[in-house]
Amino acid sequence: MAQLTYINAVQKLETGDSFTLHDMKSLSYADLDKLFEEIKYWKVYGNSQPKINEVKQW
Prior knowledge:
The chain has 58 residues and is mostly helical. The chain has helices at 6-14, 21-26, 29-45.
């Protein structure tokens, strides 16, 4: 398996795949920092295409 990068990690999370501690261990500190900042942004502001909007409103 190729080494995981920040871009691959974000794509993996956006598609809904799991992200393990082993995956985190393979990232560089700079990539981890960027990834955590991205996750914080998603938690505070939401991502651009939240999956919850796909649920029908009754």
